[in-house]
Write the structure tokens for this entry.
Amino acid sequence: KQLFEVNRQNVFKGLLAAFCVLLAWSALKPYVGPFLKPHEAIWRVGAQIGTIYLMFLTFLIFQRTDFARHTIYYLDERLGKAVNKHWHTYDDDCEMTVENLLDNFDHYYLIHLSCWFVISF
């Protein structure tokens, strides 16, 4: 019963914080966005999806770790698996060496670099 009460309080705090984030975002968000093509409504829907995602993350911050992980598990069932020692993780070796940088260089770097290159135009 005590664990249920803690979860109930955390859910209430999380919903309250998400609501406060929504109010702050509404106060700071310009009425007319900078993007007009293909249509302004499409950009507003995209902004609202981002706002809902931000509210969801704010809600998760106020939850217990096991409850937050269980909630995220519904989005992707692969997240419930334990990390295998043969999987490559980026925090294996945190030393700043050329070998370590080359070992961690993968398609994410290429995608980000190409996006930054395109955005710079």
